[in-house]
Amino acid sequence: MRKYLVLGFWLVSSALVGQDIESIKLTDLQKILQSPSDKVLVINFWATWCAPCIKELPLLEKLHQENSHVQVLLVSMDYDLDSDVEKVVRFQNRKKLQAKVLFLTENDPNAWIDKIDKRWSGALPTTLVINTKTKKRELVQGELAEGQLEELIKKVNN
Amino acid sequence: MKTLVLSLILALFWAGAPIKEGYEVGDTAADFKLKNVDGKMVSLADFKNAKGFIVIFDCNTCPYSKAYNERIIALNKKYAAVGYPVITINANDDSKSSGDSFEEMVRIAKEKSYDFPYLVDESQSVAKVFGATNTPHVFVLTKDLKVAYIGAIDDSARKAEAVTKKYVETAVDELLAGKKVTTTKTKAIGCGIKWKSV
After folding, report:
1. ipTM confidence score
2. Which of A18, A130, B5, B112 could bridge across to A137 with cysteines, CB 3.0–4.6 Å?
3. For the whole model, what pTM was predicted?
């Protein structure tokens, strides 16, 4: 009985503290963007300092929890101002984020913003919705509106 | 019916989004008239002796604006004297970002002893015409208001010491030397301008 209690406690607490945050390079991100997957990719570029990013996070979390045909990735761009991942880990724990958080560790954004999407200005938040099989993709620059992600997923699946 | 209502709402949302136009390098910018932190109206035409301008869309609150604040002040110190004054413009909607109010602009300009204009683009029309998206977002203009450079100040927001490419300085130095600007456009991560919702 006690064993189960401990296990239960461990499961709950690990769910509460969220997952480890993986540091990735541009090439890793490009691989994710290009690998064919059965799921529609929703990649949100955000940062802990970005107020509109934090405001729209619940929409992405909701999508992650309710739609198993979609993979939500929250790519933190915090490195550009603060190379320590710790701030992002603390944020993830505080907000109990369930969607996967990635930490992009690249310098000189001018060298790679276009490699993610030529239309992207570099401003945050920005969200990419990709059907990796058909390569259809939609880019939203600025804060997401309620229902917008669902519309874009429909659009890339058409 | 539900879909129709949703599409209408989305259509309205998109219609309210900023028009994705703006200047490209080589375009001629239109002059503007905006209120400075001292209450006076400022136009580019007021700078009779300028050889060009370093126009920077900036704000009070963005961590990138804060990271670049000293570098912006230094740009004016270095280039105003040789004919390229810095003109900063805040276009953020202060109902979305209260720290970007005119009063706060006045306070910061005073605290940091700005010796260049810090203008408020309350209608956001100048930011839209220029095609500014981030803060800080730089447009280097020549005397006849030709756009010579659009983009970031340099290649390292985090640390001024780690900068290897001073994009704006290089562009202005080239213009001052009568040369063609080599890097005319760059991108940077940054805060999006806080547009008004319609």
Report:
1. 0.84
2. A130
3. 0.87
